[in-house]
Amino acid sequence: MKTTKRKFLDSLRGIGAFVAPYKRAFLFAILMIVVSTAAMVIAPSIEGNITSVLYADVKRASDLQHVAISFERILSIMVTLVGVYLVKTIGQALSVIYLTNAIQNAMQDLRDALQNKIRKLPVRYFDSHHYGDILSRITNDVDAISNAFQQSFSQIISGVLTILLALVMMFRLNVVMACTAVLIIPGMLLITITIVRHSQKRFAAQQNALGNLNGAITEMYTGYNEILLYNRQEASIDEFKRLNEELRNNACKAQFVSSAIQPLNSLVTYIVIGVIAIMGTLRSLAGHFDPGELQAFIRYIWQVNDPLSQVSSLSSQLQSAFAAIGRVLDILEEEEEVPEAVVTKDVSTIRGDVCFSHVNFGYHEETLMQDLNIQVKHGQMVAIVGPTGAGKTTLINLLLRFYDVKGGSIQIDGMDIRDMKRGELRSLFGMVLQDTWLFQGSIYDNIRYGRLDARKDEIIDAAKMANVHHFIRTLPDGYHSIINEEANNISQGEKQLLTIARAILKDPKILILDEATSSVDTRLEKMLQDAMRKVMKGRTSFVIAHRLSTIRNADLILVIQHGDIVEQGTHEELMKKQGFYEKLYNAQFAQQE
């Protein structure tokens, strides 16, 4: 999955929209940061006053053994110092409380926005993106943003204020020494900017590698049984090791480059402190500089160095967050599904007449269907056959508006499906797919998923019609038996029977079957065929058929090849034509007959 390159300010604006509702809490937190930072900057001057008082007392004394210490003045200074540190502590505590609440609320809104966005994205987005990478963006990337804001925001603001206030205090003490100390800032900024510029692309590569690894892990766990079946354990392990190694390489490069900032900045600081110490000592010996002021001045140098070092040490986290913001904003800026129809249609009276009129469609820039026309009457069973990749599933995807046609129209009872809300349209359909889907919960709830307001007797009747009632009764807890998260505590055939019962319970206007009986044995297949004939009676049905023996009684068979309908008719009519359908049929049954 590609990540859009965006400028830093654009990323901040994008994420700032989620922070804006909590600006009052942010502003109050910033105010508390200002108060605590100001108190912290004042403290060295007050501490220096203690040294100055002691130096003055020693200087006045004629004998070092008879020094008169000004304890009252020192005690007064210490009381003031305690008050200053108390203000600093309270300010820090309040800033943390308000900042935490604001940031976590903003991150909650961000996750909600992502969830809402995911619901509005078209099916093609999920067809073209790895689930693991999408999951990584919603979880890992949001966490990276949250941690960066939580840990870095206050430090950056506090650091900038500390540097500015410390510089003011240094210039008040001595202009020449302050000008020398200021050399720290351009030196450290030059180092930081140079390294960050080289490491940013490495952090973006690190986040992408993490998404690729998560995507591969998701696929491996989803296909765990198939991996064992085909003895692909070694290949899967090798793939994991390759992606893990790619993540390690990108992470090592990013962390190595960014970690060089702090030692280089410390070197600059120590050199400047050494120069300042020499200058201050010489001036103090000459009587032009108070020792307490020298002590405070050196403390201010550290107060300039510490925030610069902290911001430098946070550079890796900030860059990871910057890359994460870009990946998250990519999802939020994705093109959504075509807007819903404004006018609500009454679907309760729909019979189930379906018409494909001059339909054109293709994935991306390729054209798969061109001028496709199909007329299906209410109550007909329509079978769709053709080789793999011919467009059978695409036809159903268009009917359900998982994709929209690029030309022509699809109508149900003369009503264009684009003029219907998607929820109303899809409420007309019941589906039984080859790939079963059951969720963790009771068998009762899994069947009831088809119609949540169904009564217990209706659920049992649906299970009986699907020939799964007897199996359920043999379980210790019956309908209250729990299906686990992987749904592997029942067989594939039993899972298919439950999905058929769910479709029966919904009692849809139009039924879609994707070779629904392919996962059951011969005995159950005959029982299911009888049950499905009862279910399909009186309603329009589309059957995607792989075993052609199941569709001999279809009212209409559509033979699709390369997205076009090359033949259509009943089984007998198509066999008489001796065309493509006849070849498909004989390929399956010639040996048996």
Automatic annotation (TrEMBL):
Q: Which Pfam families match?
A: ABC_membrane, ABC_tran
Which part of the chain is the ABC transmembrane type-1 domain?
27-320
Q: Kindly give the membrane topology term recorded for this protein.
A: Multi-pass membrane protein
Q: Which example biological process does GO assign this protein? A: oligopeptide export from mitochondrion
UniProt xrefs under SUPFAM superfamilies: ABC transporter transmembrane region, P-loop containing nucleoside triphosphate hydrolases
Domain ABC transporter: start-end pairs:
354-587
For whether the record's keyword set contains Disulfide bond, the answer is no
For this UniProt record, the keywords arranged alphabetically read as follows:
ATP-binding, Cell membrane, Membrane, Nucleotide-binding, Transmembrane, Transmembrane helix, Transport
Its localization reads:
Cell membrane
Q: What is its main location?
A: membrane
**Which CDD domains is this protein grouped with?**
ABC_6TM_Tm288_like, ABCC_Glucan_exporter_like
Does the keyword Transcription regulation feature in the UniProt annotation? Answer: no
Gene source species:
Longicatena caecimuris
- Provide the protein name: ATP-binding cassette subfamily B multidrug efflux pump
Q: Which GO terms describe its cellular component?
A: plasma membrane
